[in-house]
Amino acid sequence: MFCHFHPSPLGIIRLLANEHGITGLTLASQREDDDVDPDWLLTQEPFIECCYQLDAYFSGSLTRFTVPLAPQGTEFQKQVWTALRSVPYGETCSYKAIAEAISNPKAVRAVGAANGKNPIAIIVPCHRVIGADGKLTGYAGGVEMKAFLLKLEGSLAADC
């Protein structure tokens, strides 16, 4: 497992990767203990393109991430995370819409749970999922971070 820290407008982002791609993206303040080989903390190679794309995203010039991803989870979680990546930049959807997108319309609550377990925030845009009533619902990084990301993407009014 490779680890890298990168500055962002939200604070320091902690990136994790393996030989297949990015496996984690969290704010360093949300950090959990991981089994990361300290010798690999110094390597930046798996992260160069990811950091470039994150910087472009935060500057408003990137709307779709293309870095290789390797999230770890159940098959159901991976289905949900794949569906999240199809929600366009600048748009939002409901948990029900994601459940329908994975051909499991009764799995709304399970979709919510999988959304909450998303290990690769921002790149896998779980922040684009909002309540059926249009309200911002829970977010691992906090509702303020979710609002920041949605405003950045233009899908939330600046005064919200």
Automatic annotation (TrEMBL):
- GO MF, one annotated term: methyltransferase activity
Question: Would you say which domain of life the source belongs to?
Answer: Bacteria
Principal location: cytoplasm
Pfam annotation, one family: DNA_binding_1
Methylated-DNA-[protein]-cysteine S-methyltransferase DNA binding domain residues: 75-154
Give the record's GO biological process terms: methylation
Keywords on this record? Cytoplasm, DNA damage, DNA repair, Methyltransferase, Transferase
Q: Which reaction does it catalyse?
A: a 6-O-methyl-2'-deoxyguanosine in DNA + L-cysteinyl-[protein] = S-methyl-L-cysteinyl-[protein] + a 2'-deoxyguanosine in DNA; a 4-O-methyl-thymidine in DNA + L-cysteinyl-[protein] = a thymidine in DNA + S-methyl-L-cysteinyl-[protein]
Q: Which residues form the active site?
A: 126
Q: Extract the CDD domains matched here.
A: ATase
Q: Which SUPFAM superfamilies match?
A: Methylated DNA-protein cysteine methyltransferase domain (SSF53155), Methylated DNA-protein cysteine methyltransferase, C-terminal domain (SSF46767)
Q: What is its EC number?
A: 2.1.1.63
Q: Where in the cell is it found?
A: Cytoplasm
- Please report the stretch or stretches of sequence annotated as the Methylguanine DNA methyltransferase ribonuclease-like domain: 1-71
As a miscellaneous remark, the entry gives: This enzyme catalyzes only one turnover and therefore is not strictly catalytic. According to one definition, an enzyme is a biocatalyst that acts repeatedly and over many reaction cycles.
Q: Which family does it belong to?
A: Belongs to the MGMT family.
Role summary: Involved in the cellular defense against the biological effects of O6-methylguanine (O6-MeG) and O4-methylthymine (O4-MeT) in DNA. Repairs the methylated nucleobase in DNA by stoichiometrically transferring the methyl group to a cysteine residue in the enzyme. This is a suicide reaction: the enzyme is irreversibly inactivated.
Task: Give the protein's recorded name.
Answer: Methylated-DNA--protein-cysteine methyltransferase
